[in-house]
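Need a sequence for this fold. Nothing fancy.
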């Protein structure tokens, strides 16, 4: 005999009630989702970008025209592999570029890679003792860089850099400033990269979408949005907008950025404001302008072609 009991009138009623409740809940779900969506705070950046375009039409284009009339149109070209770019950017944090490039050259001389077989020479042709690398032909540089340029050398042996005693590495990069902070940061970044990917190459980032690649890099302790954006823009030409102290200062004086916006938020605002093809030339133009004319103290406003549209010169500038 079967153990299944026939449904009674009570159990059928309970089943109907349960089904009705489930149906009501399912009907309510879309309405609840719409209500939650309405409660979410809207993104303030896109409306801000639209307002700026309406209230100050053509501002970005005017600024680009102004800086390019002074410094020319920069042409993107890769100067370094992305891992070298990351390390050089770490070395430049809170340091002058000319000091960072000295530390970067010292790093490559101290830990030459096995592929570098010829004697390292300086750009003047003098031998540099204790180093084996490619011939150091004339210095390399890129638009927007504030130093005199770095020697055109092969990348260092990154495993040796990662595994070097931290005090030794700090002494090697001492010229870059804050060496006791930067040495462990460099080693931690290299270790994280090797543990995640099996080697020290960052070339895989070139296959990713810009924001996804930036998120991957900022997942490394000590790597912020500015550093990640520099690496991705300079290594792959990605349309990001690094905001350093020069870009931040010039942007706020002109009125491209609100006065109280942090550099971190300025990165996001610029991505909403600019067309992709404007990112690289505007970054290079603003950083160069900040170094050469729009100084932190005593900016040369009388010589500046952007002055007619600059809110530092005229609070009501169009």
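Here you go.
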């Amino acid at each position: 005999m079967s153990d299944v009991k026939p449904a009674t009138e009570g159990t059928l009623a309970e089943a109907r009630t349960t089904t009705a409740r489930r149906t009501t809940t399912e009907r309510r779900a879309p309405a609840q989702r719409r209500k939650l969506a309405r409660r979410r705070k809207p993104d303030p950046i896109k409306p801000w970008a639209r307002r700026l375009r309406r209230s100050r039409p053509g501002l970005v284009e005017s600024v680009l025209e102004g800086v390019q009339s002074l410094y020319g149109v920069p042409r993107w070209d890769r100067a370094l592999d992305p891992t070298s770019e990351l390390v050089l950017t770490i070395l430049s944090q809170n340091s002058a570029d000319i000091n960072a490039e000295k530390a970067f050259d010292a790093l490559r001389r101290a830990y030459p890679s096995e592929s570098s077989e010829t004697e390292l020479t300086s750009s003047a042709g003098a031998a540099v003792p204790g180093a084996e690398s490619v011939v150091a032909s004339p210095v390399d540089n890129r638009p927007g860089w504030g130093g005199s340029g770095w020697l055109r050398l092969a990348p260092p042996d990154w495993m040796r850099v990662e595994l070097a005693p931290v005090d030794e590495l700090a002494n090697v990069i001492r010229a870059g400033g804050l060496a006791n902070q930067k040495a462990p940061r460099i080693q931690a970044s290299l270790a994280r990269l090797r543990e995640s990917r099996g080697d020290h190459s960052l070339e895989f980032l070139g296959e990713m979408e810009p924001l996804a690649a930036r998120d991957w890099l900022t997942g490394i302790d000590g790597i912020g949005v500015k550093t990640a954006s520099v690496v991705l823009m300079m290594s792959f030409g990605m349309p990001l907008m690094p905001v350093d102290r020069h870009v931040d200062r010039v942007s706020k004086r002109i009125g491209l950025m609100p006065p109280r916006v942090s550099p971190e938020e300025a990165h996001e605002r610029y991505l909403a404001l600019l067309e992709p093809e404007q990112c690289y030339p505007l970054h290079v133009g603003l950083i160069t302008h900040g170094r050469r004319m729009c100084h932190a103290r005593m900016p040369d406003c009388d010589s500046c072609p952007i002055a007619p549209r600059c809110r530092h010169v005229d609070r009501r500038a169009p």
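For context: The longest strand covers residues 127-132.
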